[in-house]
Amino acid sequence: MHTLFKIILISLAAILAPAILASDLAISAAQEPVRILAFGDSLTQGYGVPPGKEFPARLEKALNAHGLDVTVINAGVSGETSAGGLARVDWLLGDGKSGPDAAIVELGANDGLRGLPVAEMEKNLDAILAKFKARGIPVLFAGMKAPRNFGPRYAADYDQVFPKLTQKYDVLFYPFFLEGVALDRALVQPDGLHPNPAGVDAIVKGIQPLAERLLQQVKTRRAGVPAKK
Q: What's the rounded Cα separation, in Å, for the pair 210 and 61?
């Protein structure tokens, strides 16, 4: 009888062990820091501001201050266009194990400043968002406004790209990355384009509520429940 009891216990252990292990792994994954890829140009990279004052660092600090365990990876490159972003996105995504949990995509400003074809920018941004979607990585998409020196038609075509792609990929959307900062001399550097440290903090304050929703999408995904925006 004692031997039979031992056999039953061993059998139950063999059956339950995989489920227990899977549960432990799920709990461990849910407790890991969330890695947000801040993917953009000089506005993300931190052109002209001291180390630690750039957008990714300030956003990470703000989220941590709210008790959120998150690391924001600075993947901004000064001068980056949408084409340049598309050329390096696969490398940033990695092999699927070392890649980010979520992303903030901020690209297109340099396309507009250079008057590059809007259709090409749209094609590049479309391809970038498609790559994140294929990996199941939640995205917060930051829009931009075209400079008005290329005429009203260019500006209208440019401005509609961002909401159009947002609707196509059903991602979180911050309509204008420089909202409340552009053209405010107290918040931009002498070049009139890039935010100063106070401007970066203004951007962070504006985008933080959406960044927190992005984190919730990651947590929901880790729990195996369909995300809600």
A: 15
Active site residues: 42, 191, 194
What is the pTM (predicted TM-score) of this model? 0.85
Tokens of 57: 């660092």
User: How confident is the model over 37-78, as pLDDT tens digits?
Assistant: 999 999 999 999 999 999 999 999 999 999 999 999 999 999
User: Any idea of the CA torsion for 19, 25, 27, 30, to the nearest 10 degrees?
Assistant: -140
Amino acid at 222: R
Burial 16-45 (b: 16+ CB within 10 A, else e): eeeeeeeeeeeeeeeeeebbbbbbbbbbbb
Architecture of domain 34-222: 3-Layer(aba) Sandwich (3.40)
Query: What is the distance in angstroms between the CA of the first residue and the CA of the last residue of the chain?
Result: 57
Query: How does pLDDT run across 86-120, given as a tens digit for each residue?
Result: 999 999 998 767 789 999 999 999 999 999 999 99
Residues 6+ apart with CB under 8 A from 42: 76, 77, 78, 79, 80, 110, 194
DSSP string computed for 11-74: HHHHHHHHHHHHHHHHHHHHHSPEEEEEEESHHHHTTTS-TT-SHHHHHHHHHHHTT--EEEEE
